[in-house]
Design brief:
Blueprint: H1 5-10, E1 16-18, H2 27-35, E2 39-43, H3 50-61, E3 69-74, H4 83-92, E4 97-102, H5 106-114, E5 118-123, H6 126-135, E6 139-143, H7 158-166, E7 173-176, H8 182-191, E8 196-198, H9 200-203, H10 212-220, E9 226-229, E10 237-240, H11 243-253, H12 258-261, H13 267-276, H14 299-326
Parallel strand pairs: 1-2, 1-8, 2-3, 3-4, 4-5, 5-6, 6-7, 7-8
Antiparallel strand pairs: 9-10
């Protein structure tokens, strides 16, 4: 068993989290992650209302008695959802772990802590992580450039970002972006993280509420099968490479504005991808870790495999290098 500050703080067996994913972070997947000994997050805004979120939390509790949390991503929008009502539904349902993303969580942090909620905040840079630590979040999840979703605008990959953050962060830190197996977990721990967060890898599991055709699309994809959209709008997002995402990139690179691509990036189209299994139906999120995904196991099989592989690397392959070095006479 691998024990870290993260597993100790959040009461989970393994240093692995399943982050919030729009349309995917539902009870079936989150409960399976929890039952496997990792930490899963329901995605609040996947639910159509705060009341529906409360019902989804209850549904998840019927499937597991282990810890799980709720992700609330707060972004500027013309017609914002009732974020505070979603948060109240989360707290009133007895959830004591919340993952925040997007906007600064400080305005809501006092309320969360007063109600006994531990907060994990997602960051894409060291400066944002330091700010989150300074305002009092309990842990951070830091996204390298390889991640699906919004990697920020600095384009710093995890191999640099994780140790750079570890040099300055004193609270538990989860590494995100490009992780899919035990090699990644062992590497993240070596770089100074307390665990890993996976999104794309959990999409390609038996319990993920995603059409089998999309799971197979992830399996057959390579690490280059993504597109970076919204770059010219300074709101970069990494999504699956398809005809829609390529059209979005072409329009924006040609001087187009959001109004010119609004119809292409509508969330309803992305939901259709997952429900109907048509990878060309709209924009859908996928990370570079696709290149490391070769099967669709159950969540339990995946988590067990990752932890066993990481343990073998740490105690076996890496340890043998120390043994070899120590066999060299000091005089030499």
């Amino acid at each position: 068993m691998i024990s870290t500050r993260f597993t100790e703080m959040f009461g989970v067996e393994h240093p692995i989290t399943q982050g919030g994913m729009q349309w995917v972070g539902r009870a079936e997947l989150v409960a399976a992650v929890a039952n496997a000994g990792a930490l899963g997050f329901l995605t609040a805004l996947t639910q159509p209302s705060p009341e529906a979120l409360a019902q989804e939390i209850n549904r998840c509790r019927e499937m597991t008695d282990k810890p799980f949390g709720v992700n609330l991503t707060i972004l500027p929008t013309i017609n914002p959802p009732p974020y505070d009502e979603y948060l109240e539904a989360t707290i009133d349902s007895g959830i004591d772990i919340v993952e925040t993303a997007g906007s600064n969580p400080e305005p809501r942090l006092a309320l969360l802590h007063a109600r006994g909620v531990r907060v994990v905040h997602k960051c894409t840079s060291v400066r944002h992580a330091l700010k989150a630590q300074a305002i009092g979040v309990d842990a951070i999840s830091i996204d390298g450039f390889e991640c699906a979703g919004h990697p920020g605008e600095d384009d710093v990959p995890g191999l640099i970002l994780i140790p750079a953050a570890a040099d300055k962060i004193t609270i538990p830190m989860i590494a995100s972006g490009g992780f899919a197996d035990g090699r990644g977990l062992a590497a993240a721990l070596a770089l100074g993280a307390d665990g890993i967060n996976m999104g794309t890898r959990f999409m390609a599991t038996a319990e993920a509420p995603v059409h089998d055709a999309i799971k197979q699309a992830i399996v057959t994809a390579s690490s280059t099968s993504t597109q970076l959209i919204f770059r010219t709008l300074r709101n970069t997002a990494r999504v699956a490479d398809n005809s829609v995402s390529r059209e979005v990139v072409e329009i924006l690179n040609g001087g187009g504005q959001f109004a010119d691509i609004r119809h292409l990036v509508a969330g309803a189209r992305g939901r259709t991808v997952y429900e109907l299994g048509d990878p060309e139906a709209g924009i859908w999120y996928a990370g570079m870790s696709q290149g490391l995904i070769n099967d669709v196991p159950t969540v339990a099989e995946l988590v067990t495999r990752i932890v066993a592989e990481a343990e073998a690397i740490i105690t076996g392959r890496l340890a043998q290098f120390i043994d070899r070095a120590s066999a060299v006479p000091v005089s030499q």
